[in-house]
Amino acid sequence: MSRMMAPPLPLVFLLMIHGVCSQWGGWSVSYSRSHICALQNSTVLMRCYYTHPTGHQIMKAFWTKTQINDNGEFPDLSDDPEYSRRLRFLGDKRISTVRLSHVTLKDEHMYYFRFITDQPGGNWIGRSGVTLNVTDLQVESPERVTEGDSVTLTCKSRCALTDRSTFIWFRNSLKILTESKPSHKLLLDPVRREDSGTYSCGVDGHTHISPDVQLNVMYRRVNPVISISPSGVIVEGDSVTLTCSDSNPPAEILWIKGGTIVGSGRVYSISNISSGDSGEYKCKSSDEHGEKYSDAVTLNVMYRRVNPVISISPSGVIVEGDSVTLTCSDSNPPAEILWIKGGTIVGSGRVYSISNISSGDSGEYKCKSSDEHGEKYSDAVTLNVMNPRGPGLLVWIVIAVACAIFTIIITIILYAM
Hints:
Blueprint: H1 9-24, E1 28-31, E2 35-39, E3 44-51, E4 58-64, H2 81-84, E5 87-91, E6 95-100, E7 109-117, E8 123-125, E9 130-135, E10 138-140, E11 145-146, E12 151-156, E13 167-171, E14 174-175, E15 185-188, E16 197-203, E17 213-215, E18 217-229, E19 234-235, E20 240-248, E21 252-257, E22 260-264, E23 267-270, E24 279-287, E25 290-293, E26 297-299, E27 301-313, E28 318-319, E29 324-332, E30 336-341, E31 344-348, E32 351-354, E33 363-371, E34 374-377, E35 381-383, E36 385-386, H3 390-416
């Protein structure tokens, strides 16, 4: 075993003399805290207790961040332009407190208290000093999060804050009201897709807030879902947006109307919508897991014509015994419809049907639409019902007369010869 060498006797004597002088000399500076960790832009209090021998009167007391300068003097912080507006001295004859506001990273330093008395050589500096560290806040978050996981976000600082701190959390710049006691950790268990967004943290009572961190929660729907904007009544000329919410990250999206592909992408927009855009829409999501279809949604575009219009089916020659349908296209939602033939009301409703039509049904037809905006009439359409037997007999009569005339002419010519 090695033995520690005892110091030489003169050194022991000097150490003893120094201890006695420190204890009996009456000069001392003791700091309430030797280390302070403060948040950016916060206010810091540094305090010390000091004594001096009796018979000395304090001429000047101040705080400094340099033990000595080029002139062998200790610069007073209150004379420094970087501190003068932010520094305020508090305290009494035995306690010195300095308050430094709006601290920044530039303020990280050792700080000392110094006082000077009226006696020659009567000055003292507390050389142990106070170490000031200034920190910002950063949110630490997992890189990849899946719905259902247990996720912890941590509000980190470069040093342990000296003051007891109550942490606050923000999602999308709105304060989060947590059920548990606010701390530097935010637990999301289980995490949901609605938890996606930007997160930041701060300390209650302080203005400094950490930079935003994006939390992106991955998920997959069983089937995609369509949302419509605007969600109310859709009128001709409006702009309508269909959104397919399927998964995160999104799959490949196709839009289908009545069996026909009409678009792609998560959003399908229709500007200046018309009645022709009415119908059922679906979205189909496709990825490496397969294909999935949303339930159908129906777009029902409201419109109003200037005047109603009549269409006839069938549109060709109408023969007695046929079935004929007249349709009055007026508006959506439809107005009240009346059918008029030669000044007489013959029916109502958007469709007027005539089965086993006869020549008595021939004539001019109009439809009249009526709603809170007034009445409007269509142009007249004419039904001309043909008799299948009439035209055949007439043809035979014409042929017979022509043949008789031809026979008479031939006979006269032959007789004259």
